[in-house]
Design brief:
With 364 residues, the protein is an alpha/beta fold. The protein has twelve helices and eight strands. Helix 1 packs across helix 2 and helix 3 (87-107) crosses helix 11 (324-337). The protein is globular.
Length: 364
């Protein structure tokens, strides 16, 4: 017999609020092999992330990957960990604080942060919203470009959790915002501001848009991620007024032996430096908040590769993180997608409704 989450705290007459789930990928709880092994076991077992026969992938994951990768990853995490914890979680919480204030004031809505892997989890965040009286749910994954590996995984986890609720909420889901004019303008403005602070070094010889990679077979199977990444880069470059030969798109973080989306960021940087490229600025528009892939892989490891192969100047443009412009854009996106949902009710009607329920034997 199935068990569904009950509503013992429900109070008749209460106005049904909007709940906003801000979702991101997640992070280990600590930069240690044990914590990272636990995180990777959850992350890499997601069939949305690795599409492979389960029995074969289980053997590879537990027999090889989780025996060696956590120690290597721990070293990388230790280089970017802060006194406040994981940068991804720190920035995501700071962004949530701004969004929570805005949506509470503008929509009478509650907001919570949930991670696909690790803590705070998506189920915990949804429970927080349910307890806050959310009967209408808007899900905002912090992935500008849609991919089944990221946005699709959030959808799976949200809907799976909602299947355990007795009273399911109205549901709206934001699939992405890769070409939203305000998002494009925010990325372009962050690049311009970064270049302005580096004016003494002159303009960069090339702007590199580096996006997280996925296996090429996902593209061939119909995942729109590759096309959306290219469009984001093209629109940002146009906003900056860049010539076609002044910018490039590449893809990072590939693992395993199969082919991923090309060109690979690390290979492109090495080749560019060896061919005489002296200056490069790297921006990662697919990451809403800085994390291991931007701070260690791009800002540290790939910088070292570029300089070691003849490059002279390498700059990384930070993610939008909790910049007020980023929060303002996302708040506008939330308002747009929650349009039509009432934000307040009639107090006298609510009181009358509660009184009628009490007369019929309701406890609260």
């Amino acid at each position: 017999m199935p068990h569904y989450v009950s509503e013992p705290e429900y109070r008749h007459g209460d106005f049904p609020r909007i709940g906003v789930l801000i979702a991101n990928l997640g992070t280990p709880d600590a930069p240690t092999p044990t914590a990272i092994r636990r995180f990777l076991a959850e992350f890499l077992w997601d069939p949305r992330v690795v599409e492979a026969p389960r029995w074969l992938w289980w053997l590879a994951l537990h027999g090889v990957i989780l025996r060696s990768r956590p120690r290597r990853s721990a070293h990388a995490y230790q280089q970017i960990w802060t006194s406040a914890g994981s940068p991804l979680l720190v920035h995501s919480r700071a962004l949530l604080a701004q969004l929570r204030e805005r949506v509470s004031r503008e929509l009478n809505a509650a907001a919570a942060l949930g991670m696909s892997y690790g803590t705070p989890s998506i189920p915990a965040a949804l429970d927080e919203l349910r307890r806050a009286g959310a009967r209408r749910l808007l899900v905002l994954p912090l992935y500008p470009q849609y991919s089944a590996t990221t946005t699709g995984s959030v959808f799976d986890q949200v809907t799976s959790e909602l299947q355990t609720w007795r009273w399911t909420p109205e549901l709206r889901f934001i699939n992405g915002y890769h070409d939203d004019p305000a998002y494009i303008q925010a990325i372009a403005a962050s690049i311009t501001a970064h270049w302005r602070t580096r004016a003494e070094n002159g303009a960069a010889s090339r702007l590199l848009f580096s996006f997280h990679g996925v296996p090429r077979r996902y593209l061939l199977a119909g995942d729109p991620y590759h096309c959306q990444c290219l469009k984001t880069a093209r629109l940002v470059a146009a906003t900056l007024g860049l010539a076609e030969d002044a910018w490039t798109v590449s893809f990072q973080s590939q693992v395993g032996r199969e082919e991923w989306l090309r060109p690979y960021t690390d290979e492109w940087l090495i080749q560019f430096a060896r061919q005489g490229g002296r200056k490069v600025t790297v921006v990662c528009p697919g990451f809403a908040a800085d994390c291991l892939e931007t701070l260690e892989e791009i800002a540290l490891r790939n910088r070292a590769r570029f300089l070691a192969n003849g490059g002279e100047s390498y700059d990384y443009v930070p993610a939008l993180n909790a910049d007020p412009t980023h929060a303002a854009f996302l708040a506008t996106l939330i308002r747009r997608h929650s349009a039509g949902w009432p934000t307040e009710g009639d107090a006298s009607e609510a009181a009358a409704s509660r009184e009628r329920a009490l007369q019929q034997g309701a406890v609260r």
